Amino acid sequence: MAEQATRRAPTGPTQETPTDKQRDYEELRRLIVGPEKEGIAAIEDRLENVERRTEDVSTVVAEAIQLRREKGDDHALAEALAPTIQATLRESVRRDPHVLADALFPVMGPAIRKSITETLRSMLESFNEALEHSLSLQGMQWRIEAMRTGKSFAEIAIMHSLLFRVEQVFLIHKETGLVLNHLVAPSVATQDPDMIAGMLTAIQQFVRDSFSSKSTESLGSLNVGELEVWLEESPDAVLAAVIRGHAPQDYRLAMNEALENIQRHYGPALSQFKGDAGPFRSAEEKLAPLLETHYKQGNGESKKTPKAAIVVGALLGALVLGWIVYSTYLILQWRKFLHALDHQPGIVLVSHSNSGGKFQIQGFRDPYSADPSKLLSDANLDPKDADLQLAPYYSLDDAIVGRRSAEILHPPAGVKLASKNGQLVAEGAAPPQWIAEFEAHAPWIAGVTSIDDSRLDNSDLAVLKPLKTTIESVVVLFPVGSAQIETGQDDKLAQIGKDFQDLLTQAARLHESVTVEVTGHTDSTGIEGTNLPLSQDRADAVRSHFLRHGIKPANMRTVGVGTSQPLHSEDTEEGRQYNRSVTFRIAFTPLPVTASPGARSSALSGN
Amino acid sequence: MLGSFSVGKSSLVRRFVESIFDEKYHTTIGVKVDKKVVQASGEEVTLVLWDIHGEDIYQKMRMNYLRGMSGYLLVIDGTRRQTLIDALSLNERVVKEIGPVPAVLVLNKSDLIDQWEIDDAQQAKLAKDGWKIVKTSARSGEAVEDVFLQLAKAILAT
Questions:
Q1: Is position A487 within any domain?
Q2: Is the model's pTM score more than 0.90?
Q3: What is the ipTM, given to two decimal places?
């Protein structure tokens, strides 16, 4: 500016008037600051003109907000905008709630569902706890089922209390009330779905008009006896499920999901619907689960049975089976035992019963019968489980009478006692004292009606047996056709005489008399009719020999048997020689002073 | 189906339309839904009929029942002129609420034609106003099928 002033100086500043100066100054100003001034005026105009200002801001407002957000200071921005947005929303809802409701529908559904699921889950948990301690039979059954299916106990409980069946599903166009799709469960009688859907829509409308102040609220369900109709609405469609029984809240979620799905998928078709339900036929696949899921739930879930549940189930099954087998075994053992007991001699069963796992048995038992405790152990039964009430009595059973007699009479080792129909038979060898005792006491034993000791021998006679055997083994030989004792047998005869004397002496001590039977034999040769006398002669010859040697004739009898009792076969000469002989038989007879053994009967007192 | 009380809407329905609901529905919830299948333009058309309770001094018609309507029958009792006046006033409200949809004007009770209070001039005027007019008798069955057929055709034409 100073330079310009200097340049102008030669034009003569002295001739210039103040107005000129003023003009010059203005001119100068114009030249110097003119362009800036225009710019300022334009800026002023922009600042003062609302229209232009709005235009300017509108070009940068989005970028400005974005920039602000990127700077990370969005809290202030949110704070500034919040009241406006709130007011905007409020105004939008006031004008037409449908706009916002429809816009929010896809978001709100899942959010609400999630919240409901959460609430329901916590409710289930507390319900679970409440039931945890219930030990009713039904509770136990449910618990087992829960274990088997791998579901929580509460779920099972709810499932049982909420049995239901979805009979029909309607997909209805909301605006027109026309049926878009209709599914019916098998064997369910239905009315015309078009009319039903129309009426349902009318009823919804009626309820909304009559009882609700807000047009967004709608009828959720209808109840008639055990039938329920559940209704769900989306912006363009209504889903109605006809349910028999009580469906769980889960089912409403399933309806909601299906409906949202349909609304999403068929949105444009729904809003342009003019009465042709064709495009909605494919919605069947989305609706079908609403009919079927709840039939198959049980089966489907059971496939998820965890291994642990199978093992536990198998163990339980095995335990139950084991218990059944064991119980059956016990019962069979008891039956066997009772049968055995009843057939046991000396035991009579009157009655038996089983109460509280303990067997009670009433009856009679002879003291000499088998021990019932031992019978119990033999049958693998615990004697503690049995209450035996057996009164004592005298059994007349042969086995028991035999046992009783043995207990009383103490027979020596060689004697066998047996009772048969009341007759007590003694068999074997016993000392004469015992035999006497047997005869005296046995008839008085209970159950003995008679005694038989005919086969009872005096055991003392046993000492005489060796001599008897020796003598009876001797054969005195004779020549052919002769009754003269063959020479060379003197020693043999002398020994016999000596043995015989010994036998007589010993027998006399035992009060027994001895009888010697001398038997003569012949071979089969020779003339018929002579053999018998010859055999007698041979026996007599031997007897004479002994008589000569001082053996008493009263103790000796002779007999000739001829060829009737050969000692040997006659195929050889040696055999025939043996048959030309004499042999001896010894028999003992008690002397008359001792009691004579033999069958005796005695009357008994009948106890 | 719209029209004043006792113009014969229900009689038309009773004889010529499939119905599963009781007529009590009219007086309780104000509407009864029925169905009529007709052959129109070579197609089978199912008409779901909302037989809406006739207006009287006790019960106003629920305009909400009209939502989603594809077309309607405006039923008039030919023997009562007032029913025509009421019907036309009702029609105005319907058009205002729903917008123009196909409609057929049903002049019922044609069996009592000698007692009619609506003469040919009036009918001509109505036709001139754009009304499709069908004269019916629910009693004799005259032209009843035609009423539904006309409506179905009109709806299909839109």
A1: yes
A2: no
A3: 0.80
